[in-house]
């Protein structure tokens, strides 16, 4: 292959990786650049033009590298988000693995059944948990695309100084919704029967009957965690601001809530009806993951308080 063929092949490999609208211009520019450089090197008498062309192309770089000079690579996830994406993926997988392990080991299994339990965990939680990093990657990649697509609308704006003050109205509204939601979960069959005027079939109402084992211990513990969180919500609203003591109490209640939800989901049935029970357990597992992330954020806030502006 002579020097001209080498350059043509090289240019073709480069422009093949570019959008069609760029190929002709880049090919003409790159081909002219390489031929000019080769002409300078081959000006000496007796120079081997073909060998010099090969040396020139080897020194110019691999086509996969050269194409980046004309089309800079855009990472799927913005570099600023890489650490956050990795951390979210690792925490999510760890929680799913831990929940799955607890499900196969609770109630305690005999020693000679441990291998079967590990197999069930591997097939039921360890491998399926790998969907979580995929979801995280898609979310962060979507965020990166939105930032680039709407860069002019998402220009940086200064944020107001951090403050410990809270929106009292928002806190009290959230507390009211939390109380209503808790009451609805406690007396949903009665509520459904009331709003329907008694026209709902008994079989539909039975789908929301709590398991006696859940009502004996796990239910009251979970209810205590919910009521405590609502009480803290109201207390912070009354005070009108966060304080270090209430932040610590909030972190403790978050840990308590996450443990209570995980225990409720893993230690046995929540509802008597199997379909309702499975849906409820899935919801509890998802909420446990949300609580873990929220607890991590609260812990960071406590360890790195930063400067705040006093509330007036």
Tally of domains:
3
Characterize the main sheet.
none
Tally of DSSP β-strands: 0
Number of helices: 13
Principal-axis shape equals elongated
Offer a few descriptive terms.
single chain, 312 residues, mainly alpha, 3 domains, 13 helices, 73% helix, 0% strand, disordered C terminus
Report on this structure.
By secondary structure, this protein is an all-alpha fold. The protein has three domains: 3-70, no CATH class; 79-149; 168-303, no CATH class. It has 13 helices and no strands. Helix 8 packs antiparallel against helix 11 (212-239).
What would a concise description of this structure say?
The chain is mainly α and 312 residues long. It has 13 helices and no strands.
Write the layout of secondary structure elements.
Elements: H1 3-15, H2 20-41, H3 49-60, H4 63-70, H5 79-105, H6 114-126, H7 131-149, H8 168-186, H9 188-195, H10 202-206, H11 212-239, H12 244-266, H13 274-303
């Amino acid at each position: 292959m002579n020097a001209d063929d080498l350059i043509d092949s090289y240019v073709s490999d480069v422009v093949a990786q570019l959008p069609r609208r760029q190929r002709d211009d880049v090919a003409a520019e790159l081909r002219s650049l390489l031929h000019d450089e080769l002409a300078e090197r081959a000006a000496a008498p007796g120079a081997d033009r073909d060998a010099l062309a090969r040396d020139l192309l080897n020194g110019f770089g691999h086509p996969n590298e050269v194409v980046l000079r004309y089309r800079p690579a855009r990472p799927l996830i913005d570099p600023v988000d890489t650490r956050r994406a990795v951390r979210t993926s690792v925490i999510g997988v760890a929680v799913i693995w831990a929940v799955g392990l607890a499900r196969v080991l609770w109630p305690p299994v005999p020693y000679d059944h441990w291998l079967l339990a590990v197999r069930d965990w591997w097939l039921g939680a360890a491998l399926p948990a790998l969907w979580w990093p995929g979801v995280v990657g898609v979310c962060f990649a979507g965020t990166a695309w939105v930032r680039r697509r709407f860069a002019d609308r998402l220009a940086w704006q200064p944020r107001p100084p951090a403050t410990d003050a809270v929106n009292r109205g928002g806190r009290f509204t959230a507390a009211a919704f939390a109380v209503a939601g808790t009451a609805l979960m406690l007396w949903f069959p009665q509520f459904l029967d009331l709003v329907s005027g008694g026209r709902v079939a008994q079989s539909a109402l039975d789908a929301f009957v709590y398991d006696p084992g859940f009502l004996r211990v796990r239910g009251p513990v979970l209810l205590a965690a919910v009521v405590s969180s609502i009480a803290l919500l109201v207390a912070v609203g009354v005070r009108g601001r966060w304080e270090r003591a209430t932040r610590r109490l909030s972190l403790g209640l978050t840990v308590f809530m996450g443990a209570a939800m995980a225990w409720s989901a893993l230690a046995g049935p929540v509802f008597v009806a199997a379909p309702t029970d499975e849906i409820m357990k899935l919801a509890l597992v998802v909420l446990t993951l949300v609580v873990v992330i929220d607890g991590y954020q609260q812990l960071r806030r406590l360890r790195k308080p930063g400067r705040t502006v006093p509330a007036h």
